[in-house]
Amino acid sequence: MTQPQAILVLPHLRIQNANAIATPLTHGFPSITAFTGLMWALERKLAQAGVPLRLQAVGVVCHHHQEQVTQGYVRCFNLTRNPVDKDGSTAAIVEEGRMHLQITLVLAVSEKRPPGTPAALVQGNDAQLADWARIAGDTLAGMRVAGGSVLPSRPVPGKRVRPWMAIVPDDPEAAATAFRQWRRQWLPGFALVGRDGLLAERLQHLRTTQPEATLFDAWLHAARFNHQPLPSADGSPAPDDKVAWGDPQRPKGSGWVVPIPVGYAALTPVAHPAGAVRNARDATVPLRFVESVYSLGEWISPHRLHSLIELLWQADTDEAQGLYRCRSGYRPSPQLDDSEAPTSENWDDADAYDYT
To answer: What integer pLDDT is reported at residue 56 of this predicted model?
Structure first.
């Protein structure tokens, strides 16, 4: 992923009744594909409004979330009672998960400039950038974000709640300095980043005791707490026969790691021609049946990110493998005491994600 030309920030968006069930196996936050889809829909609407911007990647920072569930040890989604049927019988209840969100969207943008025309996405053109940001904010206010409605933003003391744009400096040091200033505005909050390497590590660990373990087994193992007795640091017996329990794969400071969907994998080798499948959403484009692709992500505070690229997610398409997934620019700091750990340069896609 290359350094973007500029960023468009939509800060502190209040989303009501967003989709909390991203896939049949995950819930608690919309899928990252919902935000890449929003990015493309927003780009098309901006083009209709005469804004020559190309949206290339998206970053998500969550400031607040409230899943609509009942309280208690076992939680259930709050469901709506639908009106009775035409014959007076009770209508079926279709389970749906909803949640309220307050998020900041960071979009990487470039300019769609016809040949021979002067560039407008440059330093010093603050009036034009402010006008484009305003149009983007007004346009987004009438759209759905992960199935939820956008509510008017409330003033936040010391925070910018109106959309804004900024040019990313070409100099790496100047870009790093600008990013340090921008990320302060996204606090307090947590950014969702991809951690494909953790899934490869978990599979390698699981196969030490279960050689037949699959990627799906590793994903399920990483998605839960696996408590077991923990030995003491010096190997001595525990006092009063008290045994400490914990998950050795989730030590203190290991991070807020969660299972997430990252895209889709094709179920058929080739796509069906446009209009060949009945009741398709769009009969003018080819259709291909897909299933969800799963990996691991981590919620991390923006002040722990070192560059803008680490925050962004970008769509990636592999027609040969039938893979349509989102890739994160985040790369964890190398561990000095473990040079054999999988990194973004040496893990293979087949060991980095799972789809079922």
So the answer is: 93
